[in-house]
Amino acid sequence: MTKRSLPLSHVLSKLRKEPSNILKIASFNMEKRPRHEFVCTLARKFDIFLIQEFVGSTDNYTTYQQFSTSHNYQFYSSPSLSRTRANHLLDPQLMPQTGIFLNLKKCSVISQNEITQKIQPQIYCNDIRIRLPTGEMVLIVNAYLPSQPKTAQVIILQQLLPHLQDLQTAYPDLKVIFGGDMNHSMERTPSLEQRLVSSTLDILAALDLVDIGICNPTVFTLPTNHGTLPRRIDRIYVPTLWQPRAFQYQLWRPRGITSSHSLIAAHLVIDMNPTNTFGLRRFQYPLGRLLPLYETQGQITVNPDGTLDEAIAAITQEGLEYIQLHRTLRRIDPEFARSVRDTSTEHLEDSAEASLRSFFQYKSHSAMVFHDLTNVAQGTRANTNADMLRMVTSYYKALYSEPTPGLTDRALKDYLGQIKVSLSAQQAEQLDRPFTQEELTVALKLCNHGTAPGPDGIQYSVLRYHWKQFCPVLVRTGNELLQTGMMPDAFREVLITLIPKRHHSASTDVTHYRPILLINCCLRVVSQAANTRIQSIADTLIGPNQRGFMSNRRMDENLMETRTLLNLIKEAYPKDDASAPERTILMADFNKAFDRVSHRYIRQVLCHMGFGPRMTSFLMLITSGQIGRITINNYVGRSFPLLSGVRQGNPVSPILFNLAIEPLLCRLQQNLIGIPIEYDPLQITIMKYHAFADDVNIYLGDVRDYATTAAELGLFEKASSSLVNTDKSVLYGTLPGFQQGHDPFLPYPRKHLWTRKADSSLEFTDTTYLGIPLNGVLWDSYLRTLPFLCKTQAYQLLRLCVRAMGTNIYVHSKLPFRDLHTPMPSRPLNRVKFAISKVFYGISLKKLYTPLKREGMV
C-alpha cells in the first residue's frame, strides 16, 4: 500500500525510530466493500481502528469477531446489531454503519454504547469506554454522518452533545476521542453546512477537543475524500491536552480495497507520567442570549445611578441564567433544546458572511496548551500548572516592575528641554473636557469587535445590546476617572495570555512567547474615546516621519520614502568604491518596547507637551493603576502590579507610545547630519529617521553621526528605561569591508546594504523593511500563499456573490499594497487573470468589481 506521512511539528518527530509507548489510532470508510479479510489485516496495524460503512450484517459481524478473538483484539458495533442478531433478521434499515477494533494489549474495556443507545437512529455511531495503561479513562466515539440530508447530521450531533456532557460530569477525568467520516468539512465550508460546522464546534468546545491534523497546516491542502468533490471530511479529534503527544499523522490510500476515502491515522505517545489538567473555561457571556426568542425576554434593568461594577454584575448574572437554562433543557429534553437553539440562531449571521469567513479566514479553534516551560536565562524548568504559573508570573512581575530611574528629575527635565512642541491652552482644554454619550457611542463602533473579552467575559456585542442602559453608567465612570482619579474594579484587572512568537513555535523558553493582554471591553471603549481626542491633535506633537498608528498617515509613505532614499544612494554610488561617501542605516530594535517604558517618564512627557491635568491623570491611571494575572491552561496565577509599559490591547496605548518615543526622534532630527535626498542639482531634504511606532530607521551621514546616535540612544534608554536590542538591531553600510568593521559607539551586527554583481551593478541584500523585501516582492511565491482557485476545498460550492466578495476582500486587497512598491510583472498578472476566468467563468471583470447595489457582485 502507498501512504503519505506528515510528521507533526513536535520534538518527537525528530526521533529516528518510533517510540515503543505509542497509541495508534486510525479511521477508514470502506464504502460497503466486501473485503473483510483485508480490513482485518489493516486493523492489526492499529490499537484503535474505526471503520464506517461496513454493513453490519450477522455474517460480517461474526467475521470481525472471529478475527479479533484470534489476535487479542475485540470488535464492537452499535446496539442495533444486537437486536438484528437476536431476531435473526437482516433488515438493511437496522444494519449498523460503524465499528471499532480494539487492541486489548493497549487497553481494557469498561463499557460500550453508553451514548449510542440514547440516540436515534443508532446505526450511525458507536462508542466504547476504555482504560489505557496510564490509568486514563477514554471514551471512543466513532461516527458516520449520512451524506444527505444535512439536517440528519445536525440532529445526530446535537443528540450526542448532552449525553457526552452527562458522561463527563459522571466521570470528571474522562477523555474523549471523537472520529470517523463526518461528511462535511470544517474549513472553507459551503453555506449549506454552516449549521453542521456550528454543531461540531459546540462538541469540540464542550469536550475540549482538537483536530489531531491541525498540528500540521499541510493537512488542510490534502483532502481525505477523492470523489467528485475532494474534501477533508474524515477526521479524528483528541483531547486538547494530548496535542503535544502527537508523533505522526498519516494519510493512506490502501491498495486491495476500492474506496474514495483515504485512511487517516494518528500516532500518539502514551505518557506514563500524569499530565497537566485543563481548568474550567473562564466565563464569557453567551451571545445566544442576544438572539431572537430571547432578546425580548426578561431583559435586565441597569441602575443608572449604580456603579459600573454593579452594571457588569447584572449583565453577568443574565448570562449565567441563560447558561443554566440551556444546561437544564439539554438534560431534560435534548430535542426541544435543539429546536430552541435552531430558532434562536437562524438569524445569528448572514449565511453568506459565515461562508466567506469560513473559507477565507479559517482559524484553529484549539486552545494553546502548555505542558512545560523553561526560563533559559535562569536555568529553570516547570512542568506542572502551578509551577508554570509561578515561573511566568515571576518573569512578568519582574518585566513590569517599576524601573530604577536612570536620570534625576532635573536631568529628565533638561533632556526634554529640546522638545519645543506643545499643546495650546485651547487644545489642552478640549482634551480635558468631560466625555459625552455621543463620544462613547462612536468609540464603541470604532473598537475592534473581533477581539477577545477581558476578565469580565463581556464582549462588545453585549455592550452594544445593552448600550441604552449601559452608556450613561460608563460615561459617568469615565468622567470620574477624568475628575477624581477613582479607578473602578472593572478597569483594574488585566489577564495575560501567551502565544509563541513567529519562528519560535517549538520553543518552551518563556522569553519566546508574546504576552497578549486582555482588557475589559468597557475600559477599551473609554480609552478609544480618549485615543480619538488625542489623534485629533497628534500632528501638533509628533513629527511627520513617525507614521505608526497615526490617523491620516500610512505605512506606505515610510516604505516609499525609504525605497526612494536607498535607490538614490545606489544610483549615486560610484563604480570606484574608494571614492564613495559613507552612508549607513541603523535599523534599531527596541527590546520589549511597549512593556519597558517608564511610567514616570511618560508622565513627564505628557506634562512637558502641555497635556492638561485631567487627561494626564486619566492616561496614567489606566496605564499604572492596573494589576495583571497570568492565565495558563485556564488556570489563573496570582496578581501583580503593572508598574511599567503601556498595555498592548488598549486602544490608546499606540499613540501613548508614539508620544513617549517622540523626544528621541525629535533630538535625532535636531542633532544628526543625516543623508541628503538629491535630485540634481537640487537637494530636496535631509533624511534623519523613519519610524513606525518602535520600528526606527536612523540615517547616518558620516562617522560623526555614530557618536551622536549612540549618545541619543543612551540618553533615551536612561530617561525612558527602554533598551535597544544589541542582537536584533542592525547597521547597514555601503563601503567595502563594512561588514568586517567595528565601531565602539554602535556595537551592533553589520551587513552590507547591497552586493556588487558580475556586471558591476548593485543589488540590495536580502533585507526587509516593514515586511517588504528591499529587492521587491517575489510575486510567484507570494501568489501561492493566497486562498485562490482552491477547488479541492469546496470553493465552487460557495455562492457566486460570496466567492466574489471573498476574493476581493481577502485576495485582491492584498495586491495593491505590494504592487505600489513592486509593480506586478505581466506573468503573475496573467496568472491572476487566468484564475479569475476559471473561478468566475463567463462573468466580466466589470460585473465582478461592481457593488451589489449597482447590480454587480460585491
TrEMBL record:
Q: Which domain of life is it from?
A: Eukaryota
Question: In this protein, which residues make up the domain named Reverse transcriptase?
Answer: 480-774
Under PROSITE patterns, the record lists: RT_POL (PS50878)
Pfam families found in the cross-reference section: RVT_1
What is the designated name of this protein? CIC11C00000002628
Organism from which the protein derives? Sungouiella intermedia
